Amino acid sequence: MLKWARVGLTAVTILLASGGDIRWVRLSSSRGELPVPSTSREQTGDLVTQLDPDSPAKDIVLSFRVTAPALVWMRKTPSGWDRYVIEKDFLTIEAGGAAYDIDGDGDNDIVFGNDWQGNKLWWWENPYPNFDPHVSWTRHMIKDSGAKQHHDQIFGDFEGLGKPQLVFWNQEAKTLFLALIPSDPRRAGPWPLTAIFSGKAGEGTKGAALYAEGLDAYDVDGDGRVDLLAGNYWFKYEGDRKFRPIQVGEMGGRIRAAKFKPGKYPQIVIAPGDDSGPLEIYECKGDPEKSEDWIGRPLLDRELIHGHTLDIGDVDGDGHLDILAAEQAKWTRAITPIDNPDASAFILYGNGQGAFRTTMLDRGEGWHDSRIADLDGDGDMDLLQKPYAWSAPRVDVWLNNGTGKVKPWRPRVADTVRVQSFRQPVGMELWTYRRELKRDLPGTLRMIRNLGFTDVETASFYNRSASEFRHILDQAGLTCSSLIANYENLNENLDGVIKDAKTLGAHYVLTSSIPHTGALNGDDVTRAAAAFNEWGSRLKAEALQFGYHPHGFEFGHTPDETLFDVLMKQTSPDLVTYEMDVFWFAHAGADPVLFLEKYPDRFAMLHLKDIHKGFATDLTGSAPDDSSVALGTGALDWARILRQAQLSGVKKYYIEDESTDASRQVVESKRFLQEIRF
Length: 678
Hints:
5-stranded antiparallel beta sheet
């Protein structure tokens, strides 16, 4: 959970597209230059549109289906990107998404639908200008019955009514539906639907996806009316809600139309989508209403493997349209890093006469439903790289020659978004002064009290008994609210641990490790969860609270989630609380804010500990002591952490600093907490 809100171009990797003149400046959530969008291992859809009418940049919406939240907006601000939750609940959202001012209030609303697990399609009401990053948008129903899966939606005035209609695929029905926007959409229930096409649309041909997908809107026949494209067809409107499908290509999938050369009719590009096949362009050599007059040719000298990215735009700014086509690197749920090691992203630069210069932009990484758009508001076309399962959760932005001059604007927020200071009591984790405490326990505790701390957490009595340690604490004017005990002691001498906790006056009894050999696995977690629940029940009977303090090794993955998620699900909220050490979460590659958001009221405690900039993530649960730096000088975004911690119900905060320079850094950290605003 890094400092994406203030990242400048000096902090990013600069890449040069092969054979091109564009200097790509790449920002990635994997390096903390953008917000980590979610905790979901599957990022299904993305939508690039204008949500904030005041912003010069296009906005990014991402959808998920393994974990909540279901929809996230990556909002461009003058200083970077901020993460806003559009839908906080867990919904199994499919790829796709569409935007239009559905309620007629002057800003774009958005549409997404269920995947194969549901039969619903919704629209979300844009709250402009009252944006709050923690408040979901109002969700309305479009479809709540019938068949499942809704991969792709689009708005267009296909019937010539002067107002767009919504068209969407319903894959399990093998049907395209059209819906008119109700006169009062905020109060309308499910919208009336008209089936305008049923049957196959090129799926399963030449290795293409096994279900129909892909939508576009373009005037295909040059009659001045926008036409619908879907699968491997374009559709001629014949009145009275009747559309005649005209086959363009043999294979269906992602489909886009544009004019890559002068002429009356556009060319149509088709990519294989959720499977493999050629990238092909079709040109009308006669009558666009005759399938045989659409002549195709391949654009690459090889097939695309799961080529789910197809977009069109003038990338190099020469006045001619270009094509972005890219492959997925991972599409299975297996715990493997990659399914397609040679996954590639291509930009085909058009010359305005129907020919293209093909360049490989990227290799060995995942691209799924990625986009061409002006993402930073400087007037040129940037790239959104959104993988499906590769390295997820993750999002990357490729800025075209960096960010140029941008029109100034001030993002508006709701009145509920107020600047606040941090005024929570802060304790001291005694591990910070472990060296000094061994040399002079009473003197070090007095020094801690003189720094302004009144409460501590400890994992050691420093060669004293619990009663002796309590006596020295009392003399120093300190209380101890939390005792950390090792797993074996809890397992073998729980009564003794309870006695020690009561002697100290501690309310919380924690452990900070799980026995395992090699990498932690699911069986280790299940055994630990059972023990935690048992200990939690015993402690609760004694008016104490059991908790667990993760150290990062718990973030290995199952096909759907992390082992930490498994631990959360298998432990009772009434019996087991958690202490978040934001250092160890970040060190493991886990965004502290997203986990606080994901598990409200499960983290009663939090360690305030920063990690040095440029750190590498791993699951070892160990790091050099000097990786710990003063709060506000490292890689963590404390404004977002502290804001979300308060929203998620954290009750106790402790500064912990493992550095050999902790004595100086603690003073700096205290000053930072007094001055921070969020």
